Amino acid sequence: MSTAIDFRPPSSSRADMPVLDISKLAVAYRGKDEFQRVVHNVSLQVKPGEVVALVGESGSGKTTTAQAVIGLLAENGRLESGAIRLNGTDIAGWSQKRLDAIRGSKISLIPQDPTSSLNPVRTVGAQVAEVLEVHRYGSRREIEARVIELLGRVGLPEPELRARQYPHELSGGMRQRVLIAIAIALKPSLIIADEPTSALDVTVQKRILDLIDELRHEYGTAVLLVTHDLGVAADRASHIVVLKGGRIQEQGRTEEVLANPRSDYTRQLLSDAPSLGKVRHVSRAASLRSEENAIEVENLVQDFSVRGRETFRALDGVSFIVRRGSTHAIVGESGSGKTTTARSIVGFNKPTGGRILVDGTDVTGLRGEALRQFRRKIQLVYQNPFASLDPLQTIFQIVEEPLLNFDPIPREDRARKVQAILDRVGLPPSVLTRKARALSGGQRQRVAIARALVLDPQVLVLDEAVSALDVTVQAQILDLLDELQKAMNLTYLFISHDLAVVRQISDTVSVLHNGRQVDSGSIEDVFSCPTSDYTRELLGAIPGQRRPFHH
Amino acid sequence: MTSLNSTGRSLLQDDPGVLEGPTSLFASRWIAALKNVQPGLVLSWSVIGVATLWALAPQAFTSYSGTVGIARQQLRAPSAEHWLGTDALGRDLLARIIYGASNSLSGAFVAVGVGLAVGTALGLIAGTARGRTDAVIMRGVDVLLSIPQLFLSLSIVILLGFGNVTAAIAVGVTSIARFARLARSEVVRVRVSDYVEAAYGSGGTFTRVLLRHILPNSLTSVTALAALQFGWAILAISTLGFLGYGAPPPTPEWGLLIAEGRNYIARAWWLTTVPGIVVILVVLSANRISRSFGKVKA
After folding, report:
1. Which of A461-465, B11-15, B265-269, B294-298 has the lowest mean pLDDT?
2. How many Å lie between the alpha carbon of B293 and the closest alpha carbon of chain A?
3. pTM, whole model, 2 decimals?
4. Are B152 and B173 spatial neighbours (Cβ–Cβ below 8 Å)?
5. A251 plus A393 within the same structural domain
6. Residue A493: enclosing H or E segment and its boundaries?
7. Is A391 close to B217, i.e. CB distance below 8 A?
8. Which pLDDT tens digit goes with each residue over B25-64?
9. N or C, which end of chain B has less CB nearby within 10 Å?
10. Domain that holds residue A517
11. Crossing angle of helices B93-129 and B254-262, rounded to 10°
């Protein structure tokens, strides 16, 4: 055991025996006619009280590995070979019935999505009690008392009240706390946390991870943390296991992996992770010199009516100016009003009050044909590249469509323009005839950018445009955006919850909190001396800061 | 005995080695392909195929006429000459069923066509326009749904006059409501999707977005319903024919055949049973096929 990790309990003689010892694990999924192996020869150990992070991109086999450990592989999954030793007992070949006895008591799971992991028609208390009842914890009264104690322990205010509430009455962070309460109910020796915070806002994410850390200290539970975020792994884990394509690329003590990565893939991950990678040195001086304003937002107010006459103020007095050729970021958590702002600027929302000037035109007054013509100037790129492309159209049809909507040009010219823009965003001509479902997430987002750029707009609004992508793909798209901005003198409005990404690519930033602008200014000013407590909290929640590390 | 057993076992043990050869790999792939074939679906397609061929070229399947009887050959039992016997006017039953296919199938096509076209159009308008138009159309659809289907189609036949085409239209009208509801729900789902908003965002006009994105993406489940409705339409048209509201005699129509044979059920049960079985087979086959469509979509 290492002594370099400050927050771990001191080593004991028991520590030599790992809680979890996976050796040469291989898992396969049944495809059309044969089994395809997705996890190859994975071996790792988790010692008592230790956090081991399984890091990898989507499709790397990290979740499959975790599911295999707890015996919850999808129906078409099969454990092909290898051993899974839990406290020295090989549980690899166990039946579901035998596993039931240890699931919850010896080994438990914190699932990824707190919304779909709780039963919507049962109270929170009943769901926590279930795990205790299944394992015969004690009398009904004892169970009830334990449920309240657990809910209080995971930091839910008024646990007696919460126990009687249904999942929809709780926020995402509170639901995740309930799931943690279920996981720790019987003090298991191992908790598998499968992306426990990916669906949560950054500040909530920090609190949940702090809670897991705290409970781990208290109970001495080992944690197998599955995450795509190297920053989270760096902060929380003592060991890191890097997976790619179902194979272990590298594993070792966290500071060793971070300081001297041995595999090329880990090096790439480190440089691509926005929270860990060095800040890009993009020369912004030239773009900032422009005095022309591409977007001016003055005192934007947006009310929504909620059930009849009640109104909810989603935006309250938001103002900012974006210079031509620069990138302005709007940062906030879910419900902060950042997407509402973006939709008002592109003309999908009519704001209740305020003024929005894009290239000198007041957007708020536009209607009908004038609004349609205005759309040539400003384009929106959506968060989810799987939902923003018509599944029935080919890539050529998708990118060609904006051209058909304005001044008709001959077919050959259109084809040439489409090919040129696809080339520009780095897609080969072979994708032209394919449908969107045949492309990867990164490729789809490139198509969405190509569709937005084919009309030569001046402003591109990117609504969480890289949030759904893996870090390496995210880095590629950010590079592409940077290159396009320089070449075409584009103005970007970058909507994001991820401050690390924002720091990399923006010139100026507005921080929104509950519809109000709490901070605004150049990126250096806001990040180095934030004026509001909320911005400070946001900055403190960026993962990957707990370890001083440079490379 | 023991020696036999041991040789048997050794043969079995040898087997896996043999199976690893390239030829057996080819064979196992064939077996896998055969496993994927669903016999029920194949059977359904062949039933519909035969019925379609009957409708297209009845004369290729029988030398008898579907409408003209043969003198002195009334109510004959099935024999080598008349496979399914003859009816009270001396007409060959098999020929009547074969010639009847074109009436029943074309009727079903017209019925589904009416329902599909009118229903989808109403659903599309209701789903895209929303507001007052939506409310008016959908309440109208609710009224249509509240009237029993048979009652509604009988009233329409009475209003439009008797005949094969009017019966088909009457059956089609009763299915408008189902198509309208499905189409509207699909349109409502599709119109809030990111790609539709993106199409407006890139300067698309209302009609253009409707035709390029909303309509094609809404139609997938509507077509699955159309296949399902096909079987149901055959049944409904036969019902009207049976009640005497469909094609007038002597047209060979399946429902009419059942009705006519009913009078001789004691002496010649096959006259009513065989057309009944044909209707059941075709309807079941259409249902089975439409279910496979739905699976592919999902």
Report:
1. B11-15
2. 17
3. 0.75
4. yes
5. no
6. strand A491-496
7. yes
8. 666 667 766 667 788 889 999 999 999 999 888 888 888 8
9. N
10. 285-292+324-351+363-540
11. 130
